[in-house]
Amino acid sequence: QVRLVESGGGLVQPGGSLRLSCAASGNIFSRYTMAWYRQAPGKERELVASITRSGGTNYADSVKDRFTISRDNAKNTVYLQMNSLEFEDTAVYYCYTRDSILDYWGQGTQVTVSS
User: Which portions of the chain are predicted below pLDDT 70?
Assistant: First the structure.
């Protein structure tokens, strides 16, 4: 059984920073790609960033040069450092991974960018 638990969301002003964390349990973390998705009100869930087990990264165009995804395989944790936050970054952020059979999602953490 894989469990993903996000933390680090909150309220931040435009231009501010937050770091999200996702702690994973179960024998999966070091073997698979991890990702962050987000879903804003009234919009579809979208991929924000992903990181392979060897550290290769991929970002949505809207967050490139502002967000950084990283992972610590020893701690079974993936991070999302978010800088220069904009109103449009307001969303629930979800941690995601999958093995050969199943998708796994965290419960989500709210990020609100507001002045």
Answer: 28-29
